[in-house]
């Protein structure tokens, strides 16, 4: 997630600058997703990553959110952003923006116990699977 209210941009950036070293010390990488505001487009994501300037602050690329929040084609800026992508958020439904995607609606998680959902935390199927003996603490 990012900050969607401009009056809070500086606070968000200060928190991420402070949080990235802490995350790194604990083996965690923060993956910011496009959610409007500071991160409406791929160019915005890249600018925020460069401004934070820490290897533990990277991108969760979500092409659907780039269309929804930024109104841009999902691949715009992908080449420049690619070195910073640590996770991908995908969904199987038609987009709500101008750049419509083809979707069958037939994708199901491989395991009936795994949600595979695209959440704001950027968690993938491996984090939300109930098959995993070590569940993420925020999912407990």
Short description:
This protein is an alpha/beta fold. 31% of the residues lie in helices and 9% in strands. The protein has 2 domains: 6-103, Divalent-metal-dependent TIM barrel enzymes (TIM Barrel, Alpha-Beta Barrel); 108-140, no CATH class.
How does this model look, in words?
The chain has 140 residues and is of the alpha/beta class. The chain has 2 domains: 98 residues, TIM Barrel; 33 residues, no CATH class. It has 5 helices and 3 strands; from the N terminus they run αβαβααβα. 26% of the residues are buried. The C terminus is likely disordered.
Major sheet: arrangement of strands: 1-2-3
H/E topology pattern: HEHEHHEH
Instruction: Give a quick account of the main beta sheet: strands, pairing sense, barrel closure.
Output: 3 strands, parallel
User: How many distinct domains?
Assistant: 2
Q: What share of the residues lie within helices?
A: 25-40%
By DSSP (H or I, 4+ residues per run), the number of helices equals 5
CATH architecture descriptor of the largest domain = Alpha-Beta Barrel
């Amino acid at each position: 997630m990012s900050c969607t209210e401009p009056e809070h941009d500086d606070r968000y950036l200060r928190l991420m600058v402070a949080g990235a070293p802490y995350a790194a010390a604990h083996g965690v990488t923060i993956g910011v997703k496009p959610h409007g505001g500071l991160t409406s487009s791929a160019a915005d994501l890249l600018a925020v990553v460069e401004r934070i300037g820490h290897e533990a602050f990277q991108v969760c690329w979500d092409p659907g959110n780039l269309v929804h929040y930024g109104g841009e084609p999902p691949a715009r800026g992908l080449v420049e952003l690619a070195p910073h992508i640590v996770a991908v958020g995908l969904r199987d439904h038609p987009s709500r923006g101008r750049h419509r995607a083809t979707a069958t609606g037939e994708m199901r998680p491989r395991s009936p116990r795994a949600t595979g959902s695209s959440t704001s935390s950027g968690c993938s199927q491996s984090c939300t699977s109930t098959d995993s003996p070590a569940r993420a603490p925020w999912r407990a």
